[in-house]
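User: Please fill in residues for this 131-position structure.
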């Protein structure tokens, strides 16, 4: 009985901590500024758009897609966007960091990991991935 109680307590604590961590990250987003005809946007879409939401990074900072023609109307408190694709890490829609351009998945994931670890409390080991 004691072992069962300890097991249930541990499971409840783990669930509580993981749900609180996910709630703490709900204010982070990765804003993806794109435009029609952008070849690099098309490549990112082909290579990563389906994968991103299933990753720890995608759970921590969900992707918000914005066309560059609507950027000024929809997004405030960030610096202007000149190049597409541009990926802007925000907290409560305030810019924290950005990645301009896309030249491959290795560089994208590496740069994203650096800014998430440098600018947030991101720890991919604590995120529950989507199935």
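Assistant: Residues filled in for all 131 positions:
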């Amino acid at each position: 009985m004691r072992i069962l109680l300890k097991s249930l307590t541990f499971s409840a604590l783990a669930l509580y901590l993981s749900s609180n961590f996910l709630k703490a990250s709900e204010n982070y987003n990765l804003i993806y500024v794109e435009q029609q005809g952008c070849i690099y946007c098309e490549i990112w879409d082909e290579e990563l758009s389906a994968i991103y939401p299933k990753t720890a990074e995608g759970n921590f900072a969900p992707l918000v897609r914005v066309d560059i023609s609507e950027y000024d109307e929809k997004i405030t408190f960030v610096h202007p966007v000149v190049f597409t694709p541009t990926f802007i890490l925000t907290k409560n829609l305030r810019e924290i960091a950005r990645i301009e351009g896309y030249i491959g998945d290795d560089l994208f994931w590496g740069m994203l990991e650096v800014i998430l670890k440098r600018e947030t409390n991101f720890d991919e080991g604590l995120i529950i991935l989507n199935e």
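For context: DSSP finds five helices and four strands in the chain.
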